[in-house]
Design a protein that fits this description.
Elements lengths: L3 H24 L19 H5 L4 H11 L2 E5 L5 E5 L2 H9 L4 E2 L2 H11 L8 H11 L5 H28 L4 E4 H18 L14 H9 L8 H8 L9 H31 L17 H9 L12 H31 L2 H12 L8 H5 L2 H13 L6 E5 L3 E10 L5 E7 L4 E4 L1 H5 L2 H4 L41 H18 E5 L6 E4 L5 E4 L10 E6 L4
Helix pairs in contact: 7-8, 7-19, 8-13, 9-11, 11-12, 11-13, 13-16, 13-19
Length: about 550
């Protein structure tokens, strides 16, 4: 029988070994030689300051004091690199498989998504990306354009009805309508499934309800929640929220499997020209799931590159969360920005009304320069995702755009980083860099995109000179989908309505450490909201 002493020594020994093996090396990082702000807390470090997106001016002060790259302290005073150097960011994001997403974030998402492209790494991510790329090409997005048109029109009619009921002008939380409409878009465009989000009677189906349960806004930041996310094994003592999520996931898994089996059966039925696999042009389905299954079952790819059913199923909740939350959030902030710049709202509306069609083609939308500028500026100033994190998988030397001084006053031409060190890529900070965009970088000015500053060409990105869609092998695979969707909705809504903020501008704030949802500081308990007064535009 083990003695009491042995029982006490064993866990201490395990903790000591883990600390020596994994924790202590992180504190011997070369990042300690960099300048940076003092940490207000030994436990939280600078974490709370960094996570609070309302600290834009604080971040600008840090950049002015310490340069474009500096040391900040993560939880437990762990050294972490914060950088808006475009050369450094481009290197890190281009070397995506050497700079992975943090394990705790991937573990948290894996519990509800499985082996999603959002969280897989290395060869598995390469395989998934290769299989999914054909579904997100230019031609494929063009084939989905009428879905965007239809759902934007549905939202327009819903809002017109509400305005009529309220006597010509309605106060509405536009987050609700935009979120429901973009969810409908991804339901139909993603897997040809009607979610019922825009039902006038407010009726939704079980997949819709399950999805909203899983991806509901999490509770406020707390140490307990951090611990629960870091150690999924603690789910054996689940909270009420975790129990609800598990039940909802059973529903999404069941329906997702039904959808997958339907697609596979359709492939086998409609394929008549080959005896094994699916010929590339055999099935005419246009939704993303059909295109993914079609690509995955094609006869001209080796078995080693095919996705398992488990991997394909994981992409369905991925389509849902990535395909609607970011778009609806961006559109919400866009309409807010337009209420704060009536001249921009009027100028944009004039451009859109000059087009004769209520149902513009993809090419017609692409030919509207001011619409493009407004979308660009929205994604620059109001990036739906404020930041992303990466962890170095090995010791490395990061390039910089220009030399800088370390805390010892020595000129450095590179940044040395150790295995396990974290790198904060501040998407919002990069997009709002005064060094690149000028002193008015925090202001919403679409005109800047009609003649962009020369230096912004250095900003890495999937679209234009914004980092909002990421960059490199892990850049947003659906960025074309999102851009067309946002342009279509803005086109439809701005031609029909006029918008005015029904709150003090200073009361509107961004909430969350990841997705930048809007809220009112005076009504934090009411959650996500953007109250606007909406009325129909009358053409003179």
């Amino acid at each position: 029988m083990l003695s009491v002493t042995t029982l006490l020594i064993l866990p201490v020994g395990v903790v000591s070994w883990l600390s020596i093996r994994f924790v202590f090396p992180l504190y011997r990082s070369p990042l300690w030689s960099l300048r940076g702000p003092a940490a207000p807390s030994w436990f939280y470090g600078n974490f709370k300051q960094i996570s609070n997106v309302r600290n834009a001016l604080q971040i600008q002060e840090w950049v002015a004091s310490y340069g474009s790259s500096f040391l900040v302290h993560w939880l437990g005073m762990m050294p972490c690199l914060w950088t808006i150097d475009p050369t450094t960011i481009a290197y890190v994001m281009a070397q995506a498989y050497s700079y992975e997403k943090p394990m705790e974030g991937r573990m948290q998402l894996a519990r509800v998504m499985g082996k999603s492209i959002l969280i897989t790494e290395g060869e598995l991510h390469r395989k998934q990306r290769r299989a999914m790329n054909p579904a997100f090409g230019v031609a494929q997005i063009r084939n989905l354009h009428d879905v965007f048109i239809d759902k934007a029109a549905d939202l327009r009619e819903l809002w017109k009805s509400q305005i009529l009921e309220e006597g010509g002008r309605a106060r509405m939380n536009i987050v609700d309508g935009l979120s429901s409409a973009t969810l409908e878009v991804i339901g139909v465009a993603g897997f040809n499934y009607q979610l019922g989000s825009l039902s006038a009677a407010g009726e939704t189906n079980e997949l819709n309800q399950a999805f909203r349960t899983i991806f509901a806004k999490p509770p406020k930041f707390s140490l307990l929640r951090v611990v629960m996310e870091l150690f999924p094994i603690l789910d054996v003592f689940p909270s009420e929220r975790v129990k609800n999520i598990k039940e909802a996931k059973k529903i999404t898994d069941r329906i997702s499997m039904e959808l997958l089996e339907e697609r596979k059966a359709a492939m086998r039925t409609e394929t008549t020209t080959v005896t094994e696999g699916v010929e590339s042009k055999a099935v005419a389905g246009r939704d993303l799931l059909t295109l993914l299954v079609k690509s995955n079952m094609a006869s001209d790819i080796p078995d080693s590159q095919r996705l398992s059913d488990e991997e394909v199923l994981a992409q369905i909740p991925t389509f849902l969360v990535a395909g609607h939350e970011t778009s609806s959030t961006a559109l919400t902030w866009c309409l807010f920005a337009l209420t704060q710049a009536p001249h921009v709202q009027n100028k944009l509306r004039r451009e859109l009304l000059a087009v004769s069609s209520d149902n513009p083609s993809l090419e017609e939308l692409a030919s509207l320069p001011y619409l493009d500028a407004v979308i660009h500026e929205t994604l620059r100033v109001y990036a739906p995702l404020a930041t992303t994190l990466r962890v170095a998988s090995h010791d490395d030397v990061l390039p910089v755009s220009k030399p800088f001084k370390d805390k010892y006053g020595k000129l450095q031409h590179e940044i040395r980083i150790a295995k396990g060190n974290r790198i904060i890529v501040p998407i919002m900070g990069m997009n709002q860099s005064q060094a690149l965009w000028g002193d008015d970088a925090l202001e919403f000015k679409p005109e800047r995109w009609l003649d962009p500053p020369a230096g912004v060409d250095a900003i890495p990105g999937m679209w234009g000179n914004v980092l909002s869609f990421g960059y490199g092998p892990r850049g947003c695979i659906g960025y074309r989908f999102a851009i067309d969707e946002m342009k279509t909705f803005l086109y439809t809504l701005m031609r029909t309505f006029e918008f005015e903020l029904d709150a003090s501008p200073g009361d509107v704030a961004r909430t969350g450490t990841l997705l930048q949802r809007p809220t009112l500081l005076s009504q934090p308990d009411k959650g996500t909201q953007m109250p606007l007064l909406v009325k129909e535009h009358v053409v003179a």
